[in-house]
Amino acid sequence: MLIAFKLKLAFACAAGLAAPLAVAPLVSEVTTPHAVGEPALVEVAAGSFSYREAGDFTRGGRQAEAPLRIVRINRPLRIMRNQVASSDYQLCVQDGACRALDRDVAIAPDRPAVQVSWHDAEAYAGWLSRKTGHHYRLPGDEEWAFAAGSRFRDDAVPVDASDPSKRWISRYERESERDISDTAAHRFGKFGPNEHGVEDLAGNVWEWTATCFVRSRVDVSGNPGPATVNCGVRVAEGAHRAYVTDFIRDARAGGCAQGVPPANLGFRLVREETAWLASVSQRLVKAWPAKSWRRVSLPMIASAY
Question: pTM (2 decimals)?
Fold first, then answer.
């Protein structure tokens, strides 16, 4: 019975995938016309990019610059075009699965849900996954940086071995120079799309990621060693990288572990297909033309599987 259920589920998924998608060289918008509650997604093609590690690093007991490495994203990344809207988050609240937003947060389909904690974002991701049947989750910091493209800010600051405190002062001054005095949660589109079509990245809403805060030592070659991981603090990405305690909803009131606090805490999610379902769906789409999927029987699906 379980196998039959999985095959029926795979068949339904294949039916949705059978229709052609408009594909650009690097990115395409994924449409799901028959899925109620599905957010608009952008698909960023697999690729490699230069990534500055998140966390604190030391060398010989002194502050060191975070390692820079080339990261390869091996599968296309499907990420929400916009942040989670406050009206969508409110549906989760009405279902009793999410904690209510603060009173001063505007509830609207074109406004982001802000002043939410990492735990709030996790609760919403779980609720949306149950509602839609797809697996939604917070992106890792690497994935967020990959999707952000040119909007991702490299926060590296050279370390003065004779006075490491200069690094912290320099970073704080640089972050303070960025105009974050406007803390209003604007309508979607205020900060525009990046080259992938993902909107409002690095505006005045910082976005939670799944990545935990780490402290690590680097060797003489700049390679990180064993890390001390603190998952009570998570990486939030925006106009600069921030490290925020996971239960904090408004970092301006406290809870920002380093640097200038984020103006607003929000989030967007990535959609991830289960490996076996993606494999079966691809086989089905190849096996039968898009217009004939309604005539496919369960035994035919089983043979493809």
Answer: 0.73
